[in-house]
Write a structure and sequence with these properties.
It comes from Rossellomorea vietnamensis. With 453 residues, this protein is α+β, with helices and mostly antiparallel strands. It is built from ten helices and twelve strands. It has a five-stranded antiparallel β-sheet with strand order 2-1-5-4-3, with helices on both faces. The longest helix has 53 residues. The structure holds adenosine-5'-triphosphate (ATP) and magnesium ion (MG).
């Protein structure tokens, strides 16, 4: 498996190596260069000071003195005459030293110059300074062993190598750390999502703080909870549907058996068949409503917006439903505050209004009045309020009535053939319009529902 921490560590290593490499190259060269210059300067100035002494008082004693002085130091001195013939030296000349003297150019400057700078391959670094005073002329050759310099440089290389190894170790530590704080939580989350897809919603994720990883973990937890709720709702919904279907079907089956009996009278048979017919109607309505919801649930459900003229549209609907209210001894009033036109799906909107009026009709007593109030909302949208004087809904039940198959009083609602799907369909339709629905109710006083589209 390609671990993200490995990848990151690799990028990191490359970056650090490039940086460190450049830095080392620069430092290494500079340090060595400075050191070599220092060495040359030191032997050159030493040679020059011997020159000064020789020019000041040239004598055998002076020559011996210089040779003796240098024999006690790390440097060697060789003094020659004009023709590069050795007069005196602080040490016996080696072959390399002699070659250097023989190969050096015939005319050399008084301020001196470097004649051997190859510290890598040669045994000595060397400079030469010319002197001349009162016919006494010659050269002062200074030699310094290159070995200490080479040792120093190899020591320096060793240090740089050590730094390189150290940074590798640090990188390894960073790799381990990265895998701990990055890869492991990611793997845990991957496992958690795999568990989720298997249907195990009990995901346990470590607390990861407030960074992106922590947020991801929190999102996965939320997802798990949401999925669990959805699954729970779905099973509950299915259980309720089966129950809702089973009750009327049990009636149908029971009354069919009774109606099939030979010994019952014709009028009894008719009575049973009527019950069967009623129950079948309930089942058909329930299934139609469920089908309606399923259609809305699918994402391809679309709303056909049209421009609607307020007054004629509402008057037509109210006219259609008024007889139902009349036959229950109730009043239905339409009150249109403003005259304007708006956009909505006329068929869906009628479905919404019919569902709400059907509730007012079912859950109000004879003699009560239901008012349909239409006005223009401050946002310019259409605001529709349906106010009834019915049995109302208690504050605890109010948030639940939009849930599918929820009914406040099962037995009472059943009496009216209610299945608890009306309001959830209304809510879905209003939301499909991009609208808003709100409900206020007080038991035994009445209910008012407002829709803004
Ligand atoms: N105007 C109202 N007054 C009092 N209670 C209401 C009113 N409207 C709805 N309810 C309560 O809310 C519940 C849910 O209403 P909803 O319209 O979703 O279902 P239903 O009327 O029982 O059945 P359906 O509309 O599917 O035939 C009802 O069972 C009823 O108890
Ligand atoms: Mg209803």
């Amino acid at each position: 498996m390609n671990k993200i921490s490995t990848k990151l560590a690799a990028y990191f290593t490359i970056a650090v190596f490039i940086m460190e490499g450049l830095l080392m190259l620069y430092l290494h060269d500079n340090i060595i260069d400075a050191r070599i210059q220092e060495e040359f300067q030191s032997i050159l100035s030493r040679g020059n000071s011997h020159r000064d002494v020789l020019e000041d008082r040239y004598s055998n004693t002076t020559l011996h003195h210089i040779a003796l002085m240098e024999s006690k130091t790390e440097t060697e001195v060789v003094i020659t005459d004009k023709n590069h013939q050795v007069i005196i030296s602080s040490k016996k000349l080696t072959k390399g030293m002699r070659e250097l003297i023989n190969d050096s150019p015939r005319s050399l400057p008084r301020e001196g110059r470097v004649i051997e700078a190859n510290w890598k391959d040669m045994n000595y670094l060397a400079t030469v300074t010319a002197f001349e005073k009162d016919g006494n002329a010659g050269y002062v050759y200074m030699f310094k062993s290159a070995t200490p310099l080479r040792n120093l440089i190899s020591k320096l290389n060793g240090h740089f190598l050590l730094a390189g190894i150290m940074s590798l170790i640090i990188l390894a530590c960073i790799h381990i750390l990265l895998s701990k704080i990055l890869t492991r939580p990611l793997i845990r989350m991957k496992q958690a999502t795999e568990e989720l897809s298997k249907g195990n919603f009990e995901v346990k994720l470590p607390h990861l703080g407030k960074d992106e990883l922590g947020e991801l973990a929190a999102s996965i937890k939320t997802l798990a909870n949401d999925l669990e709720t959805i699954q729970h709702d779905r099973s509950e919904f299915l259980a309720t549907i089966s129950h809702e279907l089973r009750t009327p079907l049990t009636y149908v089956l029971g009354y069919t058996n009774v109606a099939l009996r030979e010994e019952i009278s014709e009028s009894e048979r008719k009575e049973y068949l009527t019950i069967i017919q009623e129950e079948s109607k309930t089942i058909v309505t329930l299934i139609e409503n469920l089908f309606e919801l399923a259609k809305i649930d699918k994402n391809n459900f679309s709303i056909q917006l049209e421009e609607i003229q307020l007054s004629p549209y509402f008057q037509k609907i109210i006219k259609k439903i008024t007889p139902a209210f009349k036959s229950e001894g109730m009043n239905l009033i339409l009150s249109i505050k403003d005259s304007f036109s708006f956009h909505a799906d006329p068929i869906r909107l009628e479905q919404i209004i019919m569902n709400l009026l059907d509730n007012s009709l079912k859950y109000s007593k004879a003699g009560s009045t239901t008012t349909v109030l239409v006005r223009q909302h401050v946002t310019g949208k259409m605001a529709l309020t349906i106010i009834d004087q019915g049995i109302g809904i208690s504050a605890e039940e109010l948030p639940q009535v939009f849930n599918r198959l929820y009914r406040v009083e099962k037995s009472r609602s059943r009496e009216f053939g209610g299945s608890g799907l009306g309001l959830s369909i209304v809510k879905e339709l209003v939301e499909a319009h991009g609208g808003n629905i709100s409900m206020k109710s007080e038991p035994n006083k009445g209910t008012s529902i407002t829709i803004i589209i």
